[in-house]
Amino acid sequence: MSRQTKPGIIDCDVHPIPKSLDQIRPYLPKYWRGRFRGGGRGLFYGNPSHGMRLDSNPPDGGPAGSDPQFVRKQLIEPNNIKHAILIPRENSCQFPDLDYGNAIASAYNEWIADTWIGPDNPDGLFKSSIVINHSDPQAAAKEIDRWAGHPHIVQVTTDSGARFLMGHRNFHPIFEACCRHNLPLAIHPGLDGIGINILPSPGNPSHYIEWHTCMSLSFMAHLVSLLTEGTFERYPSLRIVLVEGSSTWLVPLMWRLDMEYKALRHEIPWVKKRPSEYLRDHVRLTSQPLERPEKDEDLLHMLRMMDAEHLLMFSSDYPHWDFDNPKLAFPKLPEPLYNRIFFENAQEFYGLA
To answer: How far apart are CA 100 and CA 94, in angstroms?
Structure first.
């Protein structure tokens, strides 16, 4: 089977962006509209050159990622993408005023429902994520309850920046809601060290290149927390997606955690098996940004060691500057592995037709 005749790709990270904040304001309660200035970039660190693909601005105007029809023309059609899973970036989890953050998350969900996954999405190509303010877990659970069941919503999403690591019991109401509705929880970079959130790394980087290189540190910390807190024993149907945090770090991290578990498992008796054994049933990673060593065979060995056949799902991160083209991001893969990464893993994990 040639790549041209393969089933359509499932892209697990596409970012829809409002044309302007005026698209969001009508969905906010009146008393928040005047205050709303957007959630900010969610980062201390702005790309020193450009944050988006320079060719991704719609020809009719507006920022990159703001026109669903242009996204279809530029991303979907040339790359044989069957489903694009949308991850809005509303940055609602940074505010001390929790009600304000909740209002922003709710408004973005309304906007996505009307603009991207409503009547203009008759083929169901766009699937989306419920954005939540995880700083208020009870309200986040209610927001999940409100949107679960929508035919084009396939997961919940939130930021890696948080006041606690993700295995903390503070997030149990969110996990319970995800399990109640059989929705994965996707964690995406953003808000680390911003507003009320901690930065789970030693100190604040000085430059964008430092932050962007090390952004996977928060994913490592969250994953170890989820595994050692016994989250998947308490919530056996919970599924986690680690989005845009790279992936090959998983191998040495799991080697080390499994080694530590052999000596220290008496400290965490609620963890019933080696931490790495929970991954296949509960955790997936998306591919972008994919590390490419000089020798392709080194990456192929790493993919084998990380069990990419079961754990890795393709993502492009469109329309960001470091977009991974599905035709170029990977070296030539064995066909069974290509099929698993580019569509089968996501198709199974999200229950997509």
So the answer is: 10
| Alpha carbon 136 to chain centroid, angstroms | 19
Would you list the DSSP string of 206-253? Answer: SSHHHHHHHTHHHHHHHHHHHHHTTHHHHSTT--EEE-SS-STTHHHH
The DSSP-derived string for 34-97 is TT------S-S---SS-SB-TT-S-TTSS-TT--HHHHIIIIITTTTEEEEEE-----GGG-SS
Q: How far is CA 229 from CA 201, 234, 272, 321, in A?
A: 19, 9, 11, 36
What DSSP state is assigned to residue 17? -
pTM score: 0.96
- Residue 50 scores a pLDDT above 50: yes
pLDDT digits (tens, 9 = 90+) for 110-126: 999 999 999 999 999 99
**CA atoms of 130 and 297, how far apart (whole Å):** 38
| CA–CA separation, 17 and 239 (whole Å) | 26
**Token duo for residue 336:** 């069974």
pLDDT in tens, 128-150: 999 999 999 999 999 999 999 99
CA 174-176-182 angle, to 5 degrees, is 100
3-state secondary structure of 277: helix
- Residue 80: pLDDT band (50, 70, 90) is very high
> pLDDT value at position 2?
46
CA dihedral for 17, 23, 28, 34, sign (positive or negative): positive
Q: How confident is the model at residue 3 (pLDDT cuts 50, 70, 90)?
A: very low
- Give, as one character, the DSSP assignment of residue 276: G
